[in-house]
Design goal:
There is one protein chain. With about 300 residues, this protein is an alpha/beta fold. The protein has twelve helices and five strands. The longest helix has 21 residues. It is globular, with a radius of gyration of 18 Å. It starts with 15 loop residues before the first helix and ends with a helix.
Length: about 300
């Protein structure tokens, strides 16, 4: 779910491109080109790369509850992967990396600026690919003041870095935090449960200090991670969710138990709600939406 290349503004197959590139051995972007900004500059963000025409088709295919046609899926993945490989070469030095925009602050910079001075958002949904995918899986939820700020592959330290720009500066009434799968996977390196807890604490405290109410979603179920097969996520997810529920009660936040709604008896995500065991498709998001709406209504009382 984490890629070395700069993702476009649209959702591309719920991180499938990143997984394909990893399998092909595509690593960190090349050193910055001579025309790439460096140091402290007024505008450090490169122009958006856009996305290939097959990207939307691939994303919609992954949202369809029907099993994807393997041949069509393979063709779309190959086309999008090839496009990204070319883009990575052409945009060398512009990729998020430990040296350049590690937290992907550039991703929503223009969208955040466009919201400045407009109606205060009702809810900002902050998260990883599961939040990002929600925009394609249930676009109607992200109307009437609900704003999506999910980025595929992200971990809680990355979300904490961009919390002020993508949440606090927008002055929403509520923030919905849904994170943890990629921390368990170790997408940004080894980390401890305490690290995860500290990041959730810090985001919650930042929100409350700025008059923003907090919804904390449980980590959705998964029994395996295709991009990190050596990790068995289920027990760790259960441990962290138990803490998230306790922490939400302590801080007077609202805990939203998506895990219970999506889980099979063995702790995996129900097979009828996902294609890969990690990301919900439209049927999964249909179960998540009433839980989110109920929590939002409770927070607004």
């Amino acid at each position: 779910m984490q890629s070395a290349i700069r993702q476009p503004h649209g959702l591309v197959g719920l991180g499938l491109v990143a997984l394909c590139l990893a399998a092909l051995g595509v690593g960190r972007a090349a050193p910055a080109a001579s025309n790439t900004p460096f140091g402290m500059v007024d505008n450090p963000c490169p122009a958006p790369m856009g996305e290939p025409p097959e990207a939307a088709e691939l994303g919609n295919l992954e949202m369809d509850p029907a099993s994807p046609d393997p041949a069509l899926r393979a063709r779309l993945v190959a086309a999008v992967t090839a496009w990204y490989q070319r883009a990575q070469s052409e945009h060398a030095g512009e990729a998020p990396s430990p040296e350049r925009d590690w937290a992907n602050l550039c991703r929503f910079k223009s969208a955040d600026a466009a919201l400045a001075g407009t109606t205060r958002p009702r809810v900002v949904f902050l998260g990883d690919s599961i939040t990002e995918g929600w925009l394609r899986g249930d676009p109607a939820l992200f109307a009437h003041g609900n704003v999506n700020r999910g980025i595929s592959g992200q971990t809680t330290p990355q979300m904490l870095v961009r919390f002020y720009a993508d949440v606090v500066a927008l002055h929403p009434r509520i923030v919905h935090i849904l994170a943890g799968t990629n921390d368990v996977a170790g997408n940004t390196g080894p980390n401890s449960p305490q690290d995860f807890m500290n990041n959730i604490r810090a985001m919650t405290d930042l929100a409350r200090a700025n008059g923003i109410k907090v919804l904390i979603g449980s980590i959705p179920p998964s029994s395996h991670l295709s991009w990190r097969p050596e990790v068995t996520p289920g027990p760790r997810i259960a441990e962290l969710n138990a803490w998230l529920e306790r922490f939400a009660a302590e801080r007077h936040a609202i805990y939203v138990d998506y895990h219970a709604a999506l889980a099979a008896p063995d702790g995996s995500m129900r097979a009828d709600l996902t294609h890969d065991g990690v990301h919900p498709h439209r049927a999964g998001y249909a179960l998540m939406r009433p839980l989110a709406e109920s929590a939002i209504a409770q927070a607004l009382r």
